[in-house]
Known about the structure:
Number of strands: 21
Mean pLDDT: 81
CATH superfamily of the largest domain: Periplasmic binding protein-like II
Strand content: 15-25%
Shape: elongated
Amino acid sequence: xxxxxxxxxxxxxxxxxxxxxxxxxxxxxxxxxxxxxxxxxxxxxxxxxxxxxxxxxxxxxxxxxxxxxxxxxxxxxxxxxxxxxxxxxxxxxxxxxxxxxxxxxxxxxxxxxxxxxxxxxxxxxxxxxxxxxxxxxxxxxxxxxxxxxxxxxxxxxxxxxxxxxxxxxxxxxxxxxxxxxxxxxxxxxxxxxxxxxxxxxxxxxxxxxxxxxxxxxxxxxxxxxxxxxxxxxxxxxxxxxxxxxxxxxxxxxxxxxxxxxxxxxxxxxxxxxxxxxxxxxxxxxxxxxxxxxxxxxxxxxxxxxxxxxxxxxxxxxxxxxxxxxxxxxxxxxxxxxxxxxxxxxxxxxxxxxxxxxxxxxxxxxxxxxxxxxxxxxxxxxxxxxxxxxxxxxxxxxxxxxxxxxxxxxxxxxxxxxxxxxxxxxxxxxxxxxxxxxxxxxxxxxxxxxxxxxxxxxxxxxxxxxxxxxxxxxxxxxxxxxxxxxxxxxxxxxxxxxxxxxxxxxxxxxxxxxxxxxxxxxxxxxxxxxxxxxxxxxxxxxxxxxxxxxxxx
Length: 552
């Protein structure tokens, strides 16, 4: 083996060597140590030829296609950026390119590259099929794969969940072809909806126009931030992304890229390594902007102000609380007095009802005692009996009010049952000779309504017991009370007694009972009375329920 020979290199050549980042040579104070003399001569000749090339040629115009494929290629505020764009800018400096960016859709740019309308296209997936149309760089810049995205409302666990579903995909994309081959291998059939760009794929998913969509993983993660989509575990077609030129053309572009890429791949501080970390990895540290610290200061000042303000408010609240406690105490005293007054009022009213009931009983007793002095006067005895029954109607109402929780109303059902029982007893009917059929809804009548109702019922039932069932014959008295929902109560009274003769005129009778019924119903209760003579006597009475208001 030959001895190592130090060779002095001109500043021009050494500068070129440093400029082109050749990692094959090692420099030490502008000296090159090579192992054989033939290799020395070969590299000297190579350096001279390459170093003279830029001096004898003008800057090369390179038309580069750009399309939305963040973070590899994208356009922000009209300026191309991304991992591949950083490399292209670096290549343009090293290889003296003058870049002209051409925007377009992915499918249109592929056609333009094939026709030679553009010179270079970044982020092109390498396949044997495309090798027929394009030439590729040797070193992959990025490895990516296709991923399936879905609407959040549609859950996908396996590829079989896509059977007969609509799937959006980019027209001309290698991942679209890869997805079709992937589902075909499993026997799954989908309706493929082709779009002009990946944003349209995501928009179709988000709008519900399709069930799922195919997108490259790197770009899909970026787009998912702006659309209502969800990534699935289904991925396919991992592929190397490289630079591509038209087949058989622009070989110098590929040669320059292949010359500059290898040393950058192994250098952690190269443009490639830094750009890769910048665009594909989350930053490990983030410098907080100045406005953040101003915001913290503002929040601190605001916090001090709020604490002070809270202290002031707390003092005011304590003061108000003391006033409120005093006011509440005074109101409780007043409420106690009011409750005491109400209790006294309730006691007074109950006592009044009780005394009224007793007074009515005393009056009733006086009539009875007075009638005893005329035992042979049947008309007087009957008059006293009628008066006694009517007083009992009024007395019973006061008795029930005295026992009731509500000092204004009584249960008309309970009142009717007790009143009819007392009427039967007053006629000496204690057995089942006369049956009562009472059907009354659970209603509550005011005092001003209950007394007239009781008087009406007393007169009707008294007439039935006197005239409808002669010779102790058995019979039935029916009493029905309903509300028509329009502030009217309808009383249907009937008996199955002997009835009255044909042509009997109830209105033109001279008896006090019938006159009392007509007077109370039509003059006092603003209602009407209808009589019928059919298998006994029946009477239909309508009375208003909103004539009086609560007064107690």
